[in-house]
Amino acid sequence: MAVLNSVAAPRFVTDAKQMVLGAMAALLLIVLMATPGESRAAGESTEKFDAMTYYDLGRQHFQMDEWAQAIESYSKAIMVDARFAQAYYRRGEAYYFLAEKSNVPRLYDLAIADFNKCLKLDPRKSQARLYRAYCYQKVGDFEKANKELENRSHNGKTATSPTPNS
Q1: What is the DSSP-derived secondary structure letter of residue 160?
Q2: What is the pLDDT of residue 149?
Q3: Sign of CA dihedral 86, 87, 93, 96
Q4: Burial class (CB in 10 A: 0-12, 13-18, 19+), 90
């Protein structure tokens, strides 16, 4: 029997956590891709909660670093109100942080799509531009990332590193 030394055990635990997060992220992708996004008719709600209730639930999950659960709640808020720019922004943030923790690059693409939708609905949302720039960097599109950061600096904003619960 091999005995694990005290240095190897933490590395194993870290690798196991990343594998679990990666599996959760992959499962979330499958569920979200199978769920129709904005297919509900105006005014129709199949849920008993309103968009703000789901958004608030998403914020609670987000603050506890429960990215997948936050994404699910924000997605429900968006299904209830497809023009809820802040829900797209927050879901994009959750995708970003889940991608950081799980090493699933496809999540950055989903975050970019949410930041795009947020900015289409509310062009003044400069934080969405910042996160979109960081996502572009993560997927290797440095030209778009630099352009995004330049546009942000021309508008009087400075770039800062994204942090959860900001």
Answers
A1: -
A2: 85
A3: negative
A4: buried
- What element of type H or E holds 51? helix 51-63
Q: Which of 87, 82, 89 is nearest to 43 (CA)?
A: 82
Q: What's the N-to-C CA distance of the chain in angstroms?
A: 48
Q: What is the pLDDT of residues 95-123, one digit of tens each?
A: 999 999 998 999 999 999 999 999 999 99
pLDDT higher than 50, residue 7: no
Per-residue burial over 59-77, b = 16 or more CB atoms within 10 Å of its CB, e = otherwise: bebbeeebbbbbbbbbbbb
Query: DSSP states of 70-113 as a string?
Result: HHHHHHHHHHH-TT-HHHHHHHHHHHHHHHHHH--THHHHHHHH
53 CB-near residues (< 8 Å, 6+ apart) = 77
Q: Is the pLDDT of residue 78 over 50?
A: yes
Could you tell me what percent of the chain has a pLDDT over 70?
A: 62
